[in-house]
What we know:
Layout (H helix, E strand, L loop, with lengths): L11 H12 L3 H25 L5 H17 L4 H21 L3 H25 L4 H26 L41 E2 L13 E7 L14 E3 L2 E5 L5 E5 L5 E5 L18 E4 L11 E6 L4 E6 L14 E3 L6 E2 L6 E2 L6 E2 L5 E3 L2 E4 L2 E2 L12 E5 L5 E5 L28 E3 L4 E5 L14 H6 L2 E6 L4 E7 L15 E7 L2 E9 L4 E6 L9 E5 L13 E5 L2 E2 L15 H13 L15 E3 L13 E3 L4 E7 L3 E7 H6 L28 E7 L15 E7 L5 E6 L27 E4 L3 E4 L6 E6 L5 E6 L9 E5 L2 E8 L12 E6 L5
Parallel strand pairs: 1-36
Antiparallel strand pairs: 2-42, 3-4, 4-5, 5-6, 7-8, 8-9, 9-10, 11-12, 13-16, 14-15, 15-17, 17-18, 19-20, 20-21, 21-22, 23-24, 24-25, 25-28, 26-27, 29-32, 30-31, 31-34, 32-33, 34-35, 36-37, 37-38, 38-39, 40-41, 41-42
Helix pairs in contact: 2-3, 2-5, 2-8, 3-4, 4-5, 5-6
Amino acid sequence: MSSTVHTGPATPTRDRTSELQRYLAWTPALLGGVIALLGCILAGGGAYLVSLGGSLYYVVAGAMLIAAGLLMIKGKIAGVYTYIGAVAFTAVWTFWEVGLSGWELIPRLVGPFVLLILAILVAPLLDRTIGRRARKWGLIGAGGFAAALAVLIPIFNQQAAPNQLPEAHANAPFADSAYAPKKGEWNAYGGGQSAQRFSDLAQITPANAKDLKRVWTFHTGDIPKKYGSELTPLKIGNAIYGCTPMNKLFKLNAATGQKEWMYDPEVPASWVPYTAACRGVAYYENPKAAAGEACAARIIEGTLDMRLIAVDAKTGQPCQDFGKNGAADLKVGLAQKDSANGAITPVVPGTAAITGVPVIVHGVVVTGHQVLDGQRRWAASGVIRGYDAVTGELRFAWDINQPEVTKLPPDGKPYSLGTPNMWTTAVGDEKLGLVYLPMGNSAGDYYTSLRSDEEKKYSSALVALDVETGKPRWVYQTVHNDVWDYDLGSQPTLVEFPTAGGKVPAVLLPTKQGDMFVLDRATGKPLHQVDEVAVPQGGAEPDQRSPTQPFSRYHTLRKPDLVEHDMWGISPIDQMICRINFKRARYEGPFTPPELDRHNLEYPGYNGGSDWGSVAVDPQRGVIIANYNDMPNYDKLVTRKDADAMGLFPAGDPRAAGSASSAEGAGAQTGTPYGILVNAGWQMPTGVLCTRPPYGGIRAIDLATGKTLWDRPFGSARRNGPFGMPTFIPLEIGTPNNGGSVVTAGGLIFISAATDDLIKAIDIKTGEIVWSDVLPAGGQAAPIVYEQDGKEYVVIMAGGHHFMMTPGGDSLIAYALPDKK
Length: 821
């Protein structure tokens, strides 16, 4: 008798599983198509990279991905196994190439691991015997990947262990008390006349900084279209003095932030250069004024439309004894050459502007001005001028190519066209009667054949100018015949430097290329070793290149030369593209000269090292604090014909509106054979930079020896990401940063500067961030620290910066510790 086993109908669960599998049957083929396409891109690009002498990885990995994808399209489980092999190969290659360098792992591993999880999850649709195991292993793989990231998180914030900091000394061995501000004040742009950006206040410490709270906010009401509020205000007596991006002057109550007056010089919007900015103002007390006399104390600023403005510090009213109705016109004597017909014409609005802070020495207001980069070889002169701080009368002019011209040129002629300018802020020495000028380049930064011998002498150099004669006393050049836009951007700092023969009054000079020089203030002689090092030759003007360049052995912020595996991205594809472009460009280390019709890599770029934010010095501990940028530029010279075809026309030319010449650093360079294309920071179309993080850092340096005490990435990734989308990742990736710091006797560094819109307090001993606050806009400005009514305040301008792509604002914000109950 036979029997039949009746299994009955399929259970609902099995039916649903089978139905789901049928519904998802197309997903392995889709995923396989994606993997195969990626493989084709990697294999094809990798072959080109190999032909340039680059890595073999992309060819091998691309071939494995093509095989894996095709097998998956055919419904073969071998495709998943092949892809697993490709990921394993990628992991081995990654750790061999970069080790445990956290940020460098991202473009190499994250994308492949995401696809790996997807491949494991679709595996049951290719082989039903895998079943639940695949889902289990997919979840295990996802969890393992998350765990691996958690393990690697400390690596992302790795920094050198701090060395022992020198102990504070009561007699401040690196400072001269005559150059320091009054206790609790901030009476000059750099804190005091020495520009050390140091406060001797110690109420706020690493232990209590966590308790800092906002105590007042002042809104300037000024957010221009091309915003870039870089203000470092002054605190004198009971008042705060500052300026807005469009040069509106204001006075606030230091305790409450209440506005006491505001004066608008009515700068036309047409005079805004690349960025509307006013970094600060100068304060001057007339020693001959009677008590209570109008303008006995005055605030002086330079404006975007080339005026010096003086107002009464008490009332904000223009000083009628200064120039004409409180203003001296600096456009007088300036002209440019028309690019079309060669005629000498007035300066085009927006191509010359004062954004730096005037410096006053011996009652003389010394100022330079910026000349818009990349426009004309025969642009406005970079003449340096000194004006009487009371009358506004021109006391001297220093015209590099016309040294016989000591005031206005005769017969209505202009100052020499296109000479090196000083766009940043100088520092003055009242005892020596000198003002130290950090000079820029001649107009047309990337072409040198038309420069005079005098221009070549003073370009990218520190010049000690005698304010009584208006003549240079000495010059120290940091770049010979500069063709990289390595103008000096930082305000120098005055220190008392220890030598074998005792303390020497010195000037500390940071540079964009990352070197720091310490020079005797009286003679300009280096107080440390400087070597003339052989540098790459050739380029578009081979006979112009200096065979050597000066390299400081005191200290440098330079990082090692770039290599292929330093290239970055958000995926293996854009990292490969960056590798290809790296190999295609000319790069032979520092000072690789620009090429015609071929990119050259300039590392660091013109926003590298220290820029206008300058450095801070703790004279009691003998420590320099330097925040810095670590990014290249990707540049290319183009012929005049090609420049015209690309729309590279100078400002003021009717064809220039909206042209590529509007980008900072890029431009027509009319009057020279070449235009210039500049990719600042070397960004991909995604907005991601082509080189690995960190892109910025902050470092503590022993002032006596130049040795690094600690160094850490500076700037979190919370507001950065591809296509400008914030990632909200709180890790310190090290972002681009512009704006300086202040150090205090309490052992803290206060700084914003980075693109994460945070103000931070850092323990000077360890480099540890002990407090931060989210600002309503970018903080591309240097903070100040002062005391009022027994309370210590920290004030920062949160105005944002369009070049740094941080949000704009108009908030001057003060922080303090809560009152004790």
